[in-house]
Specification:
- This protein has 169 residues and is of the alpha+beta class.
- Among the domains are: 42 residues; 70 residues, Alpha-Beta Complex (Homing Intron 3 (I-Ppo) Encoded Endonuclease, Chain A), CATH 3.90.75.20.
- Helix content is 29%, strand content 16%.
- A 3-stranded antiparallel sheet has the order 1-2-3. The protein has a two-stranded antiparallel ribbon with strand order 4-5.
- β2 and β3 form a beta hairpin.
- α2 packs across α3.
- It is elongated and about 90 Å long.
């Protein structure tokens, strides 16, 4: 819509009126159907200041005055033993990518949230704890093939010499 001088004078005269009311008054007086947003934009172009611009006016007291921080879950929000729906059970196996994009399987071994790589878990169940300076690798280099006959224990020195990149522990 093209605003006439008469329209602009009306807007200037009613500058202090909130924009919602101003749109109603404008549409009633000039028999138009202009939106509140359109009226607000025209007022902005004319340099008219709206008294209700979404900010606190001097002397207004905010509703949350005196409260601290954000309201979040507190220690009484959940009953004892309550677990979220997405909580995984011990023994759950999931597949994850490492920083290089390789896929590895992990198993949840303890609550609340203790996970271990599945190939290391399988090796330790059969042969005991992995000694310091050693790691478990995949013979066929397929990180999703966690069968015991595909796993091999090698020292980190030997691994560095062969330049095999698959060693996670």
């Amino acid at each position: 819509m093209k605003y006439l001088k008469e329209h602009e004078d009306f807007l200037k005269k009613h500058e202090a009126t909130p924009r919602k009311e101003l749109a109603k008054l404008f549409n009633t007086k000039f028999k138009t159907k202009i939106s509140v947003r359109n009226i607000s934009q025209k007022c902005r172009k004319l340099g008219l200041i709206c008294p209700n611009n979404g900010r606190f006016q001097k002397g207004n007291i905010p509703v949350n005055k005196g409260t601290k921080g954000l309201t979040t879950a507190n220690k009484t929000s959940f009953g004892p033993g309550h677990r979220p729906k997405q909580t995984k059970k011990v023994g759950t196996i999931s597949t994850r990518k490492d920083k290089n994009g390789s896929l590895y399987m992990h198993i949840k071994i303890e609550d609340p949230n203790k996970w271990q790589m599945l190939h290391v878990y399988i090796w330790e169940k059969k042969h005991g704890e992995i000694p310091k300076g050693y790691c478990v690798i995949f013979k066929d280099k397929n990180t999703l093939n966690t069968r015991l006959d595909n796993l091999m224990l090698v020292s980190r020195d030997e691994l560095g010499k062969t330049k095999s990149k698959i060693c996670l522990y």
